[in-house]
Design brief:
heterodimer; A: three-stranded antiparallel sheet; 9 helices; B: mainly alpha; 1% strand; disordered N terminus
Chain lengths: 269, 293
């Protein structure tokens, strides 16, 4: 949740996101299922729970300007999704600080909060309310969101469980981009939908940028990063290895995927 | 690109605040601002649950009603039969006690699951997580409301046949009903926060809760009258989170009297104790939920 800062907040006007020396660690239980029964059994035997500390993000410092599109690339487990969730205020920093200047809209887990028994229209209302809009605001936007999702005839009023995965993704994406966010966080959200929907999505994102809104994209589709982003970072095992123009970052990342080569500055560290 | 000036007022800072509460005023403000989300979520959850089932919601009222009849038969058989006049009083006491108990237990059992079943919502959106158990409490309240007319109907019909019974049709004491119902709701919501947090850490809490609620029902003054306890036995009534408030409910509906001071003190203490302890337990750990579900 939002927190009131004790240290003075220095946030230049041109910045949408400022990440200061961010580290995120959490503990995971590597043993048995987490149940009271197991806890009591273990306690009776005098056994301790084996916990493993995961350092998902390590000392990351980054500024993102208003109106820019930042791409994040990296292998699975690099900490990309954790970073996105911490920017959204979902995961707390363990160290450091994140300052966000603007209203955030997120698409971090596909089909977010969607109740499969309800219609697409009902889910749009629920999704909008979850992201902080009032009922009147979301009802006003519902038609535009449904139009943007461009589902086949009548599907918008049918239960979401009848949707194909593509249709599901289109509705979720439409909700996220039509919230008029200042900052849009997308985690692998562009894989949903066909070629024409993808083009429409790109178009919508360009419009958002033209309105000085900021987008952060996590994607394994490197062509998307090249096409949409004006800067990119490469994350590896929780650290930011490189930052720069998307083409250069994607090239370095591809080289790493091919031959396992880390950037020279990282090898020096 | 020139920054949009509307951004300036929306600065949010996310910082570590380990093992303690987040700043409560912004939290509660955010909770209040998003209350319509909790209200709509409860409406939509009901809609999804009873979609295509015309009698779905009716069962929610019928279930405690039928259970009350079964308990009534059980109690009168165990007592070796009772007069018809006392019989209606016993039935009324079981009915209103069971309806009230169900309100609290529905808040707790539905609220306990609200975090673990709200997975994707929690992973995708930042909002005060207490809204999820709050939404379950709203649903439970909406289920409880129609049981009141059912109770009144049973009493009106019962008094038509047995006018000598002590149960009042209408009494000034009924003015206390909203306060007592609010105290039941606050206690239920507070305990829901506690069990919802426990359920995140221990996934079998919910199974255990089924047994706890069943035993709790028998320990509560529903199948027996609070007046049956004397002397130090009355501790059993006040040690039960719903004991004083159920005794107050019985006093209002069955005796047509204002609840006693000790019932009020007990009910207030449990309501605020539950919300404070449950709230602290929940809010101080809710930022952990996203990595644990």
């Amino acid at each position: 949740m939002r927190s009131e800062s004790k240290a003075p907040v220095v946030m230049p006007e041109e910045l949408a996101i400022r990440i200061e020396d961010l580290s995120i660690k959490y503990k995971i239980n590597v043993d048995t299922k987490r149940t009271l029964k197991n806890a009591v059994m273990r306690a009776s035997k005098g056994e301790k729970v084996r916990m493993r500390t995961v350092e998902a993000v390590k000392h990351l410092t980054l500024d993102v300007a208003h109106g820019s599109v930042l791409g994040i690339v990296g292998a699975n487990g690099a900490g990309k999704s954790t970073l996105m969730r911490s920017i959204a205020g979902i995961l707390p920093p363990t160290e450091g600080r994140i300052i966000v200047n603007g209203k955030i809209s997120t698409l971090l887990a596909l089909g977010v909060g969607f109740n499969p028994a309800l219609s697409g229209r009902d889910n749009i209302i629920l999704g909008g309310l979850a992201s902080g809009l009032t009922k009147d605001e979301i009802v006003e936007k519902t038609e535009a969101i449904a139009d943007f999702a461009a589902l086949p005839d009548g599907f918008i009023d049918m239960p979401v469980r009848t949707y194909s995965s593509g249709m599901y993704g289109r509705v979720a994406f439409s909700v996220a981009v039509n919230m008029t966010p200042d900052i849009l966080l997308l985690d692998e959200a562009l894989s949903a939908g066909d070629a024409s929907f993808k083009e429409k999505s790109f178009q919508r994102m360009r419009e958002l940028c033209a309105e000085a809104r900021t987008i952060v994209i996590v994607s394994h589709a490197l062509a998307t990063i090249n096409e949409l982003c004006d800067s990119a970072i490469w994350m590896h095992k929780g650290s930011m290895l490189a930052k720069g123009k998307p083409e250069a970052i994607v090239d370095q990342y591809l080289k790493f995927l091919d031959v396992g080569a880390l950037p020279s500055n990282f090898e020096d560290m | 690109m020139a920054p949009n000036t509307e951004f300036r007022s929306k600065i949010q800072v996310f910082e570590p605040h380990r093992a303690s509460l987040p700043p409560l005023i912004p939290y509660l403000k955010e909770f209040w601002n998003r209350r319509s989300f909790a209200i709509e979520l409860s409406k939509f959850a009901d809609k999804a649950e009873y979609l295509g089932s015309k009698f779905g919601k009716v069962w929610l009222v019928l279930n405690p009603l039928l259970l009350a009849l079964v308990y009534f038969l059980l109690v009168t058989v165990i007592r070796g039969g009772s007069t018809k006049v006392n019989g209606l009083t016993t039935l009324a006491h079981i009915l209103i006690g069971l309806f009230t108990f169900y309100f609290a237990s529905n808040c707790i059992s539905a609220g306990a699951q609200s975090i673990t079943s709200g997975g994707r919502l929690i992973l995708n959106q930042a909002f005060p997580r207490a809204l999820l158990p709050f939404s379950s409490s709203i649903s439970s309240f909406q289920t409880f409301l129609p049981t009141i007319p059912v109770y009144i109907f049973v009493i009106v019909v019962g008094k038509f046949f047995y006018p000598a019974t002590q149960v009042p049709r209408l009494a000034w004491s009924f003015l206390w009903v909203p306060l007592v119902v609010a105290l039941v709701g606050i206690t239920g919501f507070g305990l829901a926060l506690l069990f919802a947090t426990m359920n995140v850490y221990f996934r079998d809490t919910n199974k255990l809760l089924t047994y706890i609620i069943r035993i709790w029902l028998y320990l509560s003054p529903i199948l027996w009258q609070p007046e049956m306890l004397h002397g130090w036995h009355r501790i059993a009534l006040y040690a039960n989170p719903l004991g004083p408030v159920l005794a107050a409910t019985s006093n209002i509906w069955i005796n047509g009297k204002t609840p006693t001071i000790s019932e009020f003190i007990g009910a207030f203490a449990w309501a605020f104790g539950s919300i404070l302890i449950g709230g602290y337990f929940f809010i101080s750990r809710e930022r952990d939920f996203a990595v644990r579900i």
